[in-house]
Amino acid sequence: MYFLLFYQPPRTCEDYWSEWKHCKGIRNLFHNYYTYGEAPSCEQWKIDYGNCRKWEKSKSPDAKESLCKSERVRILEKQKYDPVWQLRKSPPRDWYLPLGQDKPK
Amino acid sequence: PASSWEEERRGPVAEGEDFGYRLFPERRSEAKPQRSFLFTSLFTFNHKCQVMLKIALETSRHRGGRPDPVASAGTVHKDRHFACEDCDGCVSGGFDAATSQIVLCQNNIHQQSHMNRVVTHELIHAFDHCRAHVDWFSNVKHLACSEIRAANLSGDCSLINEMTRFKFGLKQHHQTCVRDRAIRSILAVRKVSKETAEKAVDGVFDSCFNDHEPFGRVPHSKSDAKYAYRNFQNRDRYYANL
User: Fold this and answer.
1) What angle do CA A69, B236, B71 make, to 5 degrees?
2) Closest CA to A87 of B145, B146, B129, B122
3) Contact state of B242 with A71 under an 8 Å Cβ cutoff
4) How far apart are CA B156 and CA A22, in angstroms?
5) Would you say the ipTM is above 0.85?
6) How far apart are CA B194 and CA B152, in angstroms?
């Protein structure tokens, strides 16, 4: 119960609303067609907005679960393909070194 | 991690390979001329380049545009990580992994919008260099991946830019442009055949075209960039509440 009281949606409800409006707009329709050859699907943003408001009003666990699930699906979509390279834990050692210290001849 | 440039060059290297450094003559220490301030002011575009670079970086900071989330992967310092130099040919800029510097071609960049695009493009390479073990010099697939991402995310392939190159297309044309520009970029800096470059790009295209870090989306417009930046600022809350 303590955790539920201090939970907040991953984005503010205004963010979900503005993402939905942005997605539906004619500019995004054009950009999506130019990039992917099809119209974007924006319905999920609207559903997420509804769940966000529902959580704000009534702290509904179903709304929270749907919202979290939707965001996790968005993240999984991005991880669909195997990465080409191995990620680092920190920038390369020589990123911050002053010029000339390790410069090749 | 390799401690010198020579050690980083693993794998077979083509004869006569110069990794594109011929395009950036000022990068070779024996070729760097000692020029007076007067010469630099009167006969090069160095000052103009510095001013446009400053504007590009500051504009993005205020509007939360493309460069800022990129810069956070490893802090980018204007004086350390950027250099305005004269370059050969038509090249606009490059990322020198050996010195961790973005090179801007002061003799080929004359408009602010072009500067903004080149800075973004090269910052994508710098971002990849900071966040991953990228083998720039002997793995063509790594180079291909970064070139795909840079062409995809910098605005290089916007409809308007393509039309100014007399390349007309609409449905999914963005992908055609990204593929072509990535291949051209590889051929400009590596002594590989067109087939090798095409094979490398096609082999990694799906993975790299869909890697939109750090933006989370392809930033086609200022509002795309604004939302991407908003997500970046909000990232702690986002991941804490999944």
Assistant:
1) 120
2) B129
3) yes
4) 22
5) yes
6) 20
Amino acid at B147: E
In a domain, A105, yes or no: no
Please report, for chain B, the start and end positions of each structural domain, with discontinuous segments joined by +.
Answer: 1-131, 134-221
The residue length of chain B stands at 242
Longest CA–CA span in chain B (Å) reads 59
Q: Is B26 a catalytic residue?
A: no
Distance, in Å, from the CA atom of B158 to the CA atom of A53, rounded to the nearest integer, reads: 36
Tens digits of residue pLDDT in B203-227: 999 999 999 998 999 999 888 988 9
**What pLDDT is stored for residue B33 in this prediction?**
64
B2 touches chain A (CB under 8 A): no
Least confidently predicted of A45-54, B5-14, B105-114:
B5-14
Chain A residues touching B141 at Cβ < 8 A: 84
Region B167-179 average pLDDT? 95
Is residue A52 a part of any domain in this protein? yes
* pLDDT, averaged across chain A: 89
A 25-64: CB under 8 A from B: 27, 31, 33-37
Instruction: Indicate the average pLDDT of chain B.
Output: 86
Longest dimension (CA), chain A: 67
Residue B240 has pLDDT above 60, yes or no: yes
Instruction: Using CA coordinates, name the residue in chain A closest to B73.
Output: A91
Question: Number of folded domains in chain A?
Answer: 1
